[in-house]
């Protein structure tokens, strides 16, 4: 790829493109799911949410873009524990194995270390998603002692998933 992929915070002007990216990612993968997929929002509502996320010390949303096209997304959202953020990441399939996922996770962890109020970043990953598990391990995530659990994928199939955590070096 001769052009440069940028990792950045999305602005309100990205709302429509972000909704389109999320729809494409939802169709491409059965390991990526949106919590409110059955309750679509407008571009204006998405723009409002992007502004709120930008102002939050406990939320992060990053996009990977090539020129004006969005091709990946990474988020950290607070969990019920309050001091742990949940990482979510997805990259369009045609851009896999180009380092984009690594760059998104690296930037998200940097934000968590330096700008957030979080003490750790965690995630639940399907064990069949070997590439994602390798990425998380490479980035310093470790499996927790929590036993594997069954989760339902977008096709309604029960699959095994494990919890992983990245402790932040905050005191």
TrEMBL record:
PROSITE patterns registered for this protein in UniProt: GNAT
Keyword set includes Acyltransferase: yes
Residues passing through the membrane, by range: none
E.C. number: 2.3.-.-
Keywords of the record: Acyltransferase, Transferase
Pfam family, one: Acetyltransf_1
Protein name, UniProt field: GNAT family N-acetyltransferase
Species for this entry: Levilactobacillus fujinensis
Organism taxonomic ancestry: Bacteria, Bacillati, Bacillota, Bacilli, Lactobacillales
């Amino acid at each position: 790829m001769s052009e440069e992929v940028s990792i950045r915070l999305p602005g309100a002007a990205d709302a429509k493109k972000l909704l389109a990216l999320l729809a494409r990612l939802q169709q491409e993968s059965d390991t990526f799911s949106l919590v409110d997929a059955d309750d679509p929002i407008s571009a204006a509502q998405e723009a409002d949410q992007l502004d709120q996320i930008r102002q939050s010390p406990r939320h992060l949303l990053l996009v990977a873009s090539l020129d004006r096209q969005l091709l990946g997304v990474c988020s950290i959202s607070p969990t019920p524990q309050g001091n742990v953020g949940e990482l979510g990441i997805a990259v369009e399939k045609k851009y896999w194995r180009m380092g984009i996922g690594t760059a998104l996770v690296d930037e998200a962890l940097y934000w968590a270390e330096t700008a957030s109020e979080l003490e750790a970043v965690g995630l639940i990953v399907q064990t069949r998603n070997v590439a994602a598990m390798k990425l998380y391990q490479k980035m310093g995530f470790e499996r927790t002692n929590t036993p594997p659990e069954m989760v339902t994928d977008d096709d309604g199939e029960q699959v095994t998933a494990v919890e992983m955590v990245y402790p932040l070096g905050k005191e």
